[in-house]
């Protein structure tokens, strides 16, 4: 008996008690599991997000809406950023204080051109406190996925508390499955068999997350 026949035989045995004509969506599936671990206030959830982002080696900043332009300008200046990729829907005032050259996110940009860019600034779709994860869905203030995968420095703005949830199950209803989702937990990194960490392998070497209050 071939490997293929062995696998198919196991599938048939597993489906032996399934009524003919029953589809995957027909049996009711209980969804009564806990969607969040413990009980937290909004402030505690934001603190947990900041803690887990830092644990993944993201650099976390906090400010209010009025202080965001000055903070972005300072962080870009400290990085020596001369060019910044900007999604089409990023609020204009966010980068009004920077002297860097703002480059639009266009379909014509090549990976080589994006690799030469110093930084990228985006918003996000949602941030997950329990996992320290920021999720992008190619929304107007986030742009194409590749602009956050090629440049070496990513500044991501998270509006708190509106864009922060406690857990992955709470985040999923906010995301459309037909959109290109990018789940980011810290800067891009990998480790070899000896656990030597290398950052910037398949995305930004430096991730800075700005938690912006009202």
From TrEMBL:
<dbReference type="Pfam" id="PF02589">
    <property type="entry name" value="LUD_dom"/>
</dbReference>
<dbReference type="InterPro" id="IPR037171">
    <property type="entry name" value="NagB/RpiA_transferase-like"/>
</dbReference>
<dbReference type="InterPro" id="IPR024185">
    <property type="entry name" value="FTHF_cligase-like_sf"/>
</dbReference>
<protein>
    <submittedName>
        <fullName>Lactate utilization protein C</fullName>
    </submittedName>
</protein>
<dbReference type="InterPro" id="IPR003741">
    <property type="entry name" value="LUD_dom"/>
</dbReference>
<feature type="domain" description="LUD">
    <location>
        <begin position="94"/>
        <end position="212"/>
    </location>
</feature>
